[in-house]
Amino acid sequence: MDDSQVLRNIASSVILTMHQIPQINHLPIEELHRIPLGKLRKDATRLHAVCRYRKGISKEQIRGPEDVRCVDLHPEATPVQWEEYAKFLLYHEFLHALGFTGHDRTFRTLEALWPNKEAIGMGASFSAHLRRRGAKWAWTCPKCAKEHLRSKRGKGRYRCRDCRVTLIDVPYQTSRPNT
Ligand SMILES: [Zn+2]
Ligand SMILES: [Zn+2]
């Protein structure tokens, strides 16, 4: 199964679940099937997913899925171990696609209706996963051993926030188990 098929399957499952949420099932949920799905750049770290609207349309004008150009997902979110988070990400972007463009109180209330509550909280661990993946150096505190994973050397420019000791650069092996 290629990546675009994987994305399609995840989206279908999300749309099916959305039909079962009473607070939103009056919305044009079936139209979400027509939104093209794509992938973000592999090296994106802060952005996990995005809903892109058609050019020339302001956020205030968004009426629904027909005004959406595409929804892009981080490629690291599609492997099976992140699938539950990927579904939640798509749910979030699909709410944007349905015309809830901002992250206001209404949006957060709808977002919280997603049945897998654990998935809603997976954003922080997914971010940590992305940082570990790109890490080549662990800026390490020689006193408390706390590590800050970075792609570049710290070159003695940073101190431990707790101990005020200069952090040292230790090569980071990405094969290390994620504990
Ligand atoms: Zn959003
Ligand atoms: Zn320290």
Provide the fold topology.
Blueprint lengths: L2 H17 L17 E3 L9 E5 L14 E6 L9 H15 L7 H7 L5 H4 L2 H12 L2 E4 L6 E4 L17 E4 L8
Parallel strand pairs: 1-3
Antiparallel strand pairs: 2-3, 4-5, 4-6
The structure holds zinc ion (ZN) (2 copies).
Outline:
With 179 residues, this protein is an alpha+beta fold. It contains five helices and six strands, in the order H-E-E-E-H-H-H-H-E-E-E.
Q: Could you characterize what this model shows?
A:
The chain has 5 helices and 6 strands, in the order H-E-E-E-H-H-H-H-E-E-E. Helix content is 31%, strand content 15%. By secondary structure, the chain is an alpha+beta fold. The model has no long low-confidence stretch (mean pLDDT 92). The protein starts with a helix and ends in an 8-residue tail after the last strand. The strands form 2 sheets. It has a 3-stranded mixed beta sheet. A 3-stranded antiparallel beta sheet has the order 5-4-6. It has 2 domains: 3-127, Zincin-like; 135-171. It has helices spanning 3-19, 83-97, 105-111, 117-120, 123-134; strands spanning 37-39, 49-53, 68-73, 137-140, 147-150, 168-171. It is elongated.
